[in-house]
Automatic annotation (TrEMBL):
Protein name: Argininosuccinate lyase
Pfam families xref list: ASL_C2, Lyase_1
Lyase in keyword set: yes
Domain Fumarate lyase N-terminal: 8-302
Domain annotation Argininosuccinate lyase C-terminal: ranges: 365-434
């Protein structure tokens, strides 16, 4: 028997291989809630416009509710022969309510249907990711407040640069997550238009009300061009691009956690809850969650590049290639939200080794800039000269293997006679971070204010 949904002109069944390459139910079954919501909105509109009878619309809505509860309960029988979620739902609807089910597809095509479903799905996904990112920011800001005074080395080129505070470092990721959330919000704004009613590609001759279905589904307005409505997936691409950037941010932090927890560095200890052991080496504490959060980036960026490549050569309007838009994107969004949750978990209960951090912050002449700044401030030296003088003092300390503050004052004065005892007071890591009071700087009081402001803002959301 040929296909009941589209087989009128066919006399043979599809080959098993045809079915295998064509089927998408394993992926698009995840769109069931959106598919049913969109069908209900469509049926209600058809009745309101007098296109189908009110009684049929009522039965359709009732049948769709039954299907929803069957799917949620796990009793729905998804059939591969029915290709996708749209035909599975419609076929079950006709079992439940009879021929009226066949009226649901009036003035609609699977092309506008799938575009609508997936927009709704991506919109829900964005909302979920936004909430997860807010939780991540909250975890970071709480720890930052707790560690506003905890001094650690700041690096450039992975060489000790200047002391910073652990709280300041954590707050950097709060800011990144804020921009990530902004990018998702922007994508959400642009995607929030309804393709429903574009039908196959050209619109329809029925007197439909696209404003009504758009409104019922929480869209801002109907999409203005029916060809565009069914043939673009830029909303997925844009969301994947935002997801890729967010994943890269998480990955950089994950990389730092891997580095910090290495016994070679030893600045941070993860809780047992977020550490795994080795089956052969009994001493091991592996930061697997951080490593996997770092690795999930591959999936997310892979989905973005994969879909860009699927889309790049497609003429208008719908092409079946576009069925490949879902799997990678869904996996990517799931990977990202898991990575966000794993990072939040690690942040919440990691323990910094404050003594080790402080010692490391003082190594490598990290306060040399503070001495140069002192020369500028107290002796009115041009910064370039102060830099040179300090460089010579560092060299003298370095040949004797001494930290700056242990180099005898007389030896500093041999290089710059006007240096006084007072200069030594700026060389401690604490006074260094305390002095960085410029807006956005690492001073503990800045960090405390920033962390508090963020916590307040997040709690109000
Ligand atoms: N399963 C399809 C997809 O995800 C639905 C649209 C099918 N449309 C069509 N004309 N075959 O893209």
């Amino acid at each position: 028997m040929s296909n009941k949904m589209w087989g009128g002109r066919f006399s043979e069944r599809p080959d098993a291989i045809m079915e295998e390459i064509n089927v998408s139910i394993d992926v698009d079954r995840h769109l069931y809630a959106q598919d049913i919501a969109a069908s209900k909105a469509h049926a209600a509109m058809l009745a309101a416009q007098g296109i189908i009878a009110a009684k049929d619309a009522k039965n359709i809505a009732k049948g769709l509710d039954t299907i929803l509860s069957e799917i949620v309960a796990g009793s729905f029988d998804f059939k591969r022969a029915l290709e996708d979620i749209h035909m599975n739902v419609e076929s079950r609807l006709s079992e439940l309510i009879g021929p009226a089910a066949g009226r649901l597809h009036t003035a609609r095509s699977r092309n506008d249907q799938v575009a609508t479903d997936f927009r709704l799905f991506v919109r829900d996904t964005i909302d979920g990711i936004d909430a997860a990112l807010a939780g991540y920011q909250h975890a970071l800001a709480e720890r930052a407040l707790q560690h506003a005074d905890t001094v650690m080395p700041g690096f450039t080129h992975l060489q000790t640069a200047q002391p910073v505070t652990f709280g300041h470092h954590l707050m950097a990721y709060v800011e990144m997550a804020a921009r990530d959330r902004g990018r998702f919000r922007d994508a959400r704004k642009r995607l929030n238009e309804s393709p429903l009613g574009a039908a196959a590609l050209a619109g329809t001759s029925f007197p439909i009300d696209r404003d009504a279905t758009a409104k019922a589904l929480g869209f801002e307005r109907p999409m203005a061009n029916s060809l565009d409505a069914v043939s673009d997936r830029d909303f997925v691409l844009e969301t994947l691009a935002a997801a890729s950037i967010a994943a890269v941010h998480l990955s950089r932090f994950a990389e730092e956690i891997v580095l910090w927890t290495s016994p070679l560095v030893g600045m941070v200890r993860l809780s047992d809850k977020f550490t795994t052991g080795s089956s052969i080496m009994p001493q091991k504490r592996n930061p697997d969650a951080a490593e996997l959060a770092r690795a999930k980036t591959g999936r997310v960026i892979g989905a973005l590049t994969g879909l860009l490549i699927v889309m790049k050569g497609l003429p208008l309007a719908y092409q079946k290639d576009m069925q490949e838009d879902k799997q990678g994107a869904m996996e990517a969004f799931a990977a990202l939200s898991l990575a966000i949750r794993a990072m939040s978990g690690m942040v919440s209960d990691l323990v910094p080794d404050e003594a080790r951090m402080k010692a490391a912050a003082g190594e490598g002449y990290a306060t040399a800039t503070d001495l140069a700044d002192w020369l500028v401030r107290e002796l009115k030296m041009p910064f370039r000269d102060a830099h040179h003088v300090t460089g010579r003092i560092v060299a003298a300390a370095s040949t004797q293997n001494l930290p700056l503050h242990e180099l005898p004052l007389a030896e500093m004065q041999a290089i710059e006679p006007r240096i006084t005892q007072q200069a030594l007071s700026v060389l401690s890591v604490e006074s260094s971070v305390k002095s960085r009071v410029s807006y956005g700087g690492t001073a503990p009081k800045n960090v405390r204010a920033q962390a508090k402001a963020w916590l307040k803002r997040l709690e109000k959301e």
